[in-house]
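Aim 2 progress update. The chain analyzed this quarter is reproduced below.
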Amino acid sequence: MTQARNLTMIGTGYVGLVSGTCFAEMGFNVTCVDVDQSKIDNLKNEGIIPIYEPGLQEMVRRNAKAGRLHFTTNLASVVPQSDAIFIAVGTPQDEDGSADLQYVQAAAEQLAPHLSGYTVIINKSTVPVGTGQLVEDAIRTTNPSADFDVTSNPEFLREGEAVGDFLKPDRVVVGIENDRAEAMMASIYKPLTDQGVTLHVTNRASSELIKYAANAFLATKITFVNELISLCDKVGADILSVARGMGLDSRIAPRFLQPGPGYGGSCFPKDTNALAKTARDHGVQLNLVEETIRTNQSIKEQMADRIAANLGGVKGKTIAVLGLAFKANTDDMRDASSLTILPRLQSMGATIVAYDPAAMERAKELMPTLTYAGSIEDTLNGADSAVILTEWADFRTLNLKQLKAALKQPVLIDLRNLFTLQEAQAAGLTYFPLGRPA
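Predicted structure tokens:
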């Protein structure tokens, strides 16, 4: 078996830093490369990470101290010694919904001149079908004599749970075009396959499509249960009981059936749009995916209207908002529901006072007209009502009697269904959950 020893990770964003650190934890010698000097300096000197991800900073510091994890801006210095090079750079969404591959192509062109000996180049970034060929062509054009293969190895990391997802995955997907590349990838993931993790080996095109298809399916699953919320309101059903009853069917399963104010984050919005655009480019209409995208945005807008209706209008009222990030345990504001709901409430005349345990600084850049509080208590104090927008553990353990005492009006609108009607009533609150009899 071709043995991988030295791994290089191009990009120290969410995917690159988590993946590189976890490979070091598995025993490989890993160098993470980034063009951002300040980011590299922080990682090298203090182990300060540029993202919020539970458990990651401690793992970075531990592996750096052990000499397995290194950081540099000098790509040319590490490529010749690399057995495998992961491209884990950003693929932001273009205006037409497609993935912008300029950083992927730039990484391929920059590493190409420095290749020495057989090297596997691995697309870890989320990329559309055909990107493996794009990378291969870019390297071949820049360095025709290079001995390399390009593989696809999509990530399936959930923000807030990424370290566990990497080290104990449901499966590892690898797209290869020959046996030599397969042997290298098997070597890289041997620490996981030895523990029983399935290595799903397929061709590059299938591997590239798997990531988009999986995320589009999960986004559809989330959107389906969110669309049932309004029906539950009308007929007196409990969305939590409906979702549980569905999830107990092994063909459906309970994960991603939690109702809420719409999906967001770095993956689902971007990946559903990119998949739909790829299909259109090939003359295929993915109607279910297209409708999922439209419905998710509509659900976010409906949540603002729901809040206004619950309060009998919001003009001149102060609303305390708990949670801004698209989900708990992350500071990610990309496509967060708050970015749709809160400006819409402001346009109706509401004053918003908001708090989030991790996403405040990012939120201030995106919604500068909101008022930001330094604590839960400061957020609630004197507000006309409270709205729970993100399911942080801090909010699950709120003292509802104290919450009522802090508000001018005893109204709690819970868009994450963190409490029961009985708990809220016992505290003297008027309680508005999602899709549950109130």
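Residues 204-235 form the longest helix (32 residues). The mean pLDDT is 96. These observations will guide the mutagenesis experiments scheduled for the next reporting period.
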